[in-house]
Amino acid sequence: MEKIRWFWVWVIASLIFRLVFIYFPNDFILGSRAEIATPLTSLRRLAEGYWLKQSSMSPYAGSMYHGSPLLLSLLGPLTVLGTNGQPSYLLCSLLFVVADFVTAVLIRETGWKLQMAYSDRLKSLNLDKVLESSDILPAGDIASLIYLWNPLTIVTCLGLSTSPIENLMVVLSLYGACSGLAPLTAFGWVTASHLSLYPSLLVIPVIFLLGYGPESPPRKLYLQKTASSNGNNPVLGDHFFSWRPVIYFLLWATIWSSYFLFLCSISLKQYGGLPEMFKRTYGFILTVEDLSPNIGVLWYFFAEVFEFFRDFFLIVIHLNILFMILPLAIRLNHRPCFLAFVYIAIFSMLKSYPSSGDPALYLALVGLFVNELADMKFSFFLFCGYVGVALLSPVMHNLWIWRGTGNANFYFATAMGYACLQIILVVDSVSAMLQHDRMLQKLSRAQS
Amino acid sequence: MAESEVNEASKNPKKPQKPLIRVVIYIISHSSLFSLICCIAGIVAFLLLPILAKNTYISENALMPGSANPMFSGHETIEANQLVKEIMSINPKIVAAGIEIPRLLAQHMERTGAEVYCHKFHAQMNQFHPLQFFSASPYTLKMQENSSCGSHGINSVGIIRAPRGDGKEAIVLVTPYNSSKIDLSEALSLGLAYSIFSLLSRVNWLAKDFVWLAADSRYGEYNSVAAWLKDYHTPVFVGLKEFDTDTCAESSYPHDWKEHSTTARSIPDVFGRAGTIAAALVFKVVDRQETTDKDTLNIYSEASNGQMPNLDLINIVHYLAVHKQGLHVKVEKFYLLLNSAWLRIVGEIFELIGKVAKNLNPQWKFGIPAADYIEGTATLASSVYYQALGIPTGSHGAFRDYQVDAITLEISPRVSLNNEARRPEFLLRGGRLIEGVIRSVNNLLEKFHQSFFLYLMTSSGKFVSVGVYMIGFALLVSPLPVAAAALYSGLRTSDSSLNTNKHKANPSSTEAYGTVLKSWRWLHAAKVVFVVHLWGVLVSLVPCLIIQLPERTPTSSMLAWVSLSILSLVTLYGILGSPYSYIISPQYQRREWEILKAVMIAVASIGLGLMSIINYATAQIGAVLMVPMCLLAVPLRHISRSGMSRAVLLTIFNLVVAFLSFPPVTMLLIKGFSEGFDSVSVGDFWIWAQSLWTWNSATYLYLILIHLPCWALCIHILLHPC
């Protein structure tokens, strides 16, 4: 497991690359693109909300801002802090670059932790031949470089949307869970859920991570092992679910969430308080109020559906996400980090306002399992598909909005293609992972 | 997707498969035959387009062309003639001639009771902005403020407020004229436009505002119209406006206006607007002696990037011109093709097939006479050519950037314009035609949406719609993904067979981990492809530097471009590693070029697919050149291992195709064939490319970002040391 040569050089190069583009005055060309900034993450809307709040109005007035009031207090002052002669929002851009950098470092550390734990466990099963027979790649380094150099990440960072911060929080909670730090995990999870609601589903993988520890081969193998060696094998001991860190986590999560709610209620005291916040942020997410086009599929669907059936389909579509959670959790409970990746991919497919920040995150998480997913069948197809959709989407948008020769169906077609790609990615990666597990089982059976 | 299925199939052949998967596997395993058939079918489908063309029809019922009697009468022609005489009597020698005509026009417009103003604009210099196509909105265009005050033109604009409208919509009539050197035909178009204007100021049926823009084309027709449209669509803030007028002091403004007319004093400062523009007509009279016995109407409609106005607009013009005014309507065609021998042969073959089919079953009527076929192909070729070029064929192109449907009508009389006795009749025809079109558009309730936007013309009354021509394109391009899948799956099956062999030889080694990341082996090839495309981006930006150089000729610029491109390719390889430097175990090296070819073909098909959406015509021409090149590319060393005659044939094919599809060579050859090889020089490509980027043509992007890298990769494959 050698590290990638010049890892830090590549990291610094990616940061310089971002800084160079920040200094180009792009006048919100990226920030006004539907693919990059959604009603939830757009910094322009945040600036508007901040302005409303400064002039003692509710930041949620006029359906402009739909994010967290805490983000408003943190980022709001940065949006108006004009540096003389520099492009506006420079400070915010710098903050996003820093967020990207921290995310990448955390991904790298997570990758290291996962890999160490995994190799330890394989050794305890006498399966370490798997590690020696071929050169194992440094998954953490690869994943963090994928995150930093992914064009989608770069575009999201430059496009002034708050997704880098949401991604940072998700990765922070995963990192905390991998290293067993309950307070940090709880902080990351609570913040991520507070900012965009969907990461709250990550509570399941996070609990698995804290309870069982990071990735391991299927638990059945340990049972076989114990049975075959018919004795009190110490291997088995640390693979029971340990409740202690989980309870810590839940405790801390309660503390953090009540603290956040308290802060929110203070900042929104004159403007309707917490109920208003819930209605304007989570309500906005769940009821899909804004039907302006984005790369998801829901806007088109709810633009077409009759008002009468709207509630019904809202429930159906949100249940769609929930339906997939339980089976996946049962099947993949020994690989909680991978489970987290699958969840993130699924909800970025079905969420109401997806943006390019979501694929940026889950594509980097794929990198964490680069050794296990070596057998992915559709890798080349997926690569071509992502490149094609990423280029096609702006062209279709141009055809529809600016040239007037296309229509909404053109743009929606790419959104459907994108959703299909995500489905293929999830199916293919899960089947490759299960294949890998099967191979481990075969090996261990061959040994015993 | 299919490659894995092949793999699966080879693993467990007994497992029953779904029919769809079986079809896919069958196609992939016979990919070369499939490619050949599809390519030929694609080209044949393209040649069939003139036969498949349908007659145009008016799709929007609200238009009702020709349902009302024209009001344009002899009285108006007299008015027109008067203005023509006045304009022609202005002595072009005097200094103020450029101001004299706008003044005269403004006076006349005022007399009809319309709103009048003068729009002053600066001639814009051509700049290098190849990527403006993707920044997408014309509203973000930035005006160059540093142009000198001397080079300005004056458009005179008159607006008739509709007596029956709410002022939310407008129709625009543009008559370009050269204010510094006006000739009789331009004066006639001004006179005719004025007579229509004065007629419309009196009618009671007008429901949309009518704007007459007499565009000063001293600095180019397109520039003046584009400048006016830009000002029309961008809100001007008061402070800025004052600043703008201050910079160019009153010196250049027509002072003497105040002396001529007291009411005109307040005119120039206020930029008047009507509603959103529903349609625009650019109207010109040309004195071109045609050999027909009718007055001729030429229609030009291609705007930037192959965008066309809604077909309904052309339809009403065509309908009114042919059926009401008895004009001879023409669209542009390549006269060169009319005499081509092979086209005649193709036409006769199709005619013969049509006859045979008709004999078999009298209900099959798809044959057309060979002469019609040739005529249709010549028109189609010019339609494809102008769309592919992406350069508007007239000032109507400026309107399309604002989603306004516009066409240029060029009307030419059958006898000379100087023949005053024939003039009133000619004016009457032209006037009634334009009145009819305006009246028709006036009936429109929504903007044009009913008919086609994506079509090719094969004659003024026939068109091929997107649904028809896309089939040919899809056939032509479909071999690419199939070939990529076949190459890739062939690779994977050979991998697995390798693995099993190894497994047998050395049973102790663990299964499946023999090759790390075997399904990700395309990553290296993807890197090579990425580097070459990155080079394409650099090449596309190099002219940005070159145009800064002083004292350059087209040839020297071209040479500088080529040398800088090669230099940048070498530098990129120095930094990011050359494609041949990758060291791999010898068992895979054999396959390395195949994987590179698979990735290249996949990227090429993505690129062509994208371009077909942006500009079909470019993609079609590009596909004809690129598909054979991509499919044929095989390392020369690999070829030399096969049989003698086959090797020679393949090598020659490869080299010829690679030579022909190098963009400058293609362009110079086409130019040479159409204009003779004496006048062709290397610098021509530079001039051509320059015209592409100054017009924001996406064709430039396609050439440098997709076509050129693919060509370079094909050369890489040809020279691959396998």
Automatic annotation (TrEMBL), chain A:
This is GPI transamidase subunit PIG-U. It holds the Pfam family PIG-U. InterPro entries: PIG-U. Pathway: Glycolipid biosynthesis; glycosylphosphatidylinositol-anchor biosynthesis. It is a multi-pass membrane protein. Keywords: Endoplasmic reticulum, GPI-anchor biosynthesis, Membrane, Transmembrane, Transmembrane helix. The chain crosses the membrane at residues 6-24, 63-82, 88-107, 168-190, 197-214, 246-268, 280-302, 308-330, 337-353, 381-402, 408-434. It comes from the Eukaryota. One of its GO terms (biological process) is attachment of GPI anchor to protein. Its main location: endoplasmic reticulum. It is found in: Endoplasmic reticulum membrane. Belongs to the PIGU family. GO terms for cellular component: GPI-anchor transamidase complex.
UniProtKB/TrEMBL annotation, chain B:
The chain crosses the membrane at residues 20-53, 466-488, 528-549, 561-583, 595-614, 620-636, 648-670, 700-719. This is Glycosylphosphatidylinositol anchor attachment 1 protein. One of its GO terms (cellular component) is GPI-anchor transamidase complex. It comes from the Eukaryota. The keyword Transmembrane helix applies. Keywords: Membrane, Transmembrane, Transmembrane helix. GO terms for biological process: attachment of GPI anchor to protein. The keyword Membrane applies.
